[in-house]
Design brief:
CATH architecture of the largest domain: Alpha-Beta Complex
Structural class: alpha/beta
Largest sheet: 11 strands, parallel
Shape: elongated
CATH class of the largest domain: Alpha Beta
Number of domains: 3
Strand content: 25-35%
Number of helices: 10
Length: 462
């Protein structure tokens, strides 16, 4: 089976120059969800019909798919399918057609629609012309109504709301916009239907009407979750779809042993992977290809993006970890910032208002207060005091700082790179270090302290 994804819509109601299908849901373009669903539904041969912003869509998804351009932006859904006719016309098979703004359809539904075709043929000895995804909505306003033969799932026609009679508007079963058609019948219908007199568009719903008029049989397939048929035509509907998908992801991980405190506040993206016994507190953001191992705790307000956290790591409130790895038993935060290409070693501590960038910490390193460590290598057991800065940039290029094992760097010290501190070196607080410090040496750099008696009180007088 092949699939055609209709992604040519301009999305006027989005009020955006960007193609509607490229608007993001949980960090992924809306179209990504549809393509992923089709693939997971067992269909690999996929064409995408593009229109407005075609080049931008192609650039986003690369050459994995066949692309066809709908030349007439107001041609309608059937015209969009016709634009891809060279992709599917010669196949004696079925074709899946799905809208690119239907991110809530699941791969299980796609699989089950295909099984339904097989079961009807096997047990009823009926070769269907098509299957249409439907659902029953409490409020069907705005959706095409499914008119069926009484007591069966045979579709007689699909009536758009504007064309429906008062009796038909009371029907709550609606068109979900996902179709599987037998290709020879589809080809015949597309070249026989007429454009709408009101809009000049060719509609796929008219394909259904034509097939039924020719005696071909089309059945409805009810979605297991009514939200699957909800399209995304406005920014508000985009937000609604995003919330549904977010909660589905949270439910998925919760069923696999992850604890979410106040889950309605947690942001989680599709590529995130969580192990059992992970604990996530309110207002946490888990983004990109983040991996959290067993026993990790991420507390309130923390952001973790494209990072790997090993077993029993604790991320304290309002910390940010980006494109880095934190090893087993380490602690980060609160209010710490771990930037790209950083590795925090086992049982190390990166504390309050500490920023680390492109650096590697060994085991049991402590940098607990108000420090900046950039482009540095820090050995096992080293202590970095409050206010320490590695001065890694000379105005033209970055330089490395190498700090050995079991080093003590006193508070408010400035390490001017490139520089190397040997194992067991001791830097006294307040020192500006511009030379290498050998192993086991003490480095002290301070102006002489002068104490002038009586001058303090004099300076404090009004």
């Amino acid at each position: 089976m092949k699939a055609v994804v209709l992604a040519a819509g301009k999305g006027t109601r989005f009020k955006s120059d960007k193609p509607k299908v490229l608007h993001e849901i949980l960090g992924k373009p809306m179209l990504w969800y549809v393509l992923n669903t089709v693939r997971q539904g067992g269909i690999e041969d996929i064409a995408v019909v593009v229109g407005h912003g075609a080049e931008e869509v192609k650039k986003t998804f690369g050459d994995e798919f066949a692309y066809f351009v709908q030349e007439n932006p107001k041609g309608g859904t059937a015209d969009a399918v016709l634009a891809s006719v060279d992709f599917w016309r010669n196949a004696e098979d079925y074709l899946l057609i799905i809208n690119g703004d239907s991110p809530l359809v699941t791969s299980d539904t796609i699989k089950n629609m295909q099984r339904f075709l097989t079961l009807v043929e096997e047990y009823e000895k009926v070769e269907l012309a098509g299957v249409v995804l439907t659902s029953v909505l409490q409020d069907p306003t705005g959706y095409g109504r499914i008119v069926k033969e009484e007591g069966t799932d045979r579709i007689l026609r699909i009536v758009e709301e504007k064309d429906a009679t008062p009796q038909e508007r009371n029907i709550r079963e609606v068109n979900g916009g996902v179709y599987i058609f037998y290709i020879p019948y589809l080809l015949e219908a597309l070249f026989k239907i007429k454009p709408s007199e009101a809009t000049g568009e060719l509609y796929l719903t008219d394909v259904v009407d034509y097939m039924v008029s020719k005696g071909y049989e089309i059945r409805s397939f009810m979605a297991s979750d009514p939200t699957e048929v909800l399209g995304v035509n406005t920014r508000w509907e985009l937000s609604f779809a995003e919330n549904i998908l977010r909660l589905k992801l949270i439910k998925y991980w919760a069923q696999r042993g992850v604890t979410f405190h106040i889950p309605e506040t947690v942001w989680i993206e599709p590529d995130v992977s969580l192990s059992k016994n992970v604990e996530v507190y309110p207002n946490v953001f888990l983004k990109g290809r983040t991996r959290l191992s067993e026993g990790v705790v991420v507390k309130t307000g923390a952001v973790v993006r494209d990072s790997e956290l090993s077993e029993n790591v604790v991320v304290e409130p309002y910390s940010v970890i980006e494109k880095s790895k934190v090893e087993r038993g380490a602690k980060v935060g609160p209010y710490a910032h771990i930037r790209e290409r950083t590795r925090v070693g086992e049982k190390s501590e990166v504390g309050n208002f500490v920023e680390v960038k492109r650096s590697t910490f060994g085991k049991r390193v402590k940098a607990k207060h108000l420090a900046y460590i950039g482009d540095a290598e820090v050995g096992d057991g080293t202590n970095v005091g409050a206010g320490v800065v590695t001065a890694n940039y000379d105005g033209r290029k970055k330089h490395r700082t190498e700090i050995g094992k079991n080093v003590f760097v006193g508070s408010n010290s400035l390490l001017v790179a490139p520089i190397k501190l040997g194992d067991f070196a001791y830097v006294a607080g307040g020192s500006v270090v511009t030379k290498d410090v050998p192993e086991e040496a003490l480095a002290v750099e301070r102006a002489e302290l002068r104490i002038l008696k009586g001058r303090g009180k004099k300076l404090l007088k009004p």
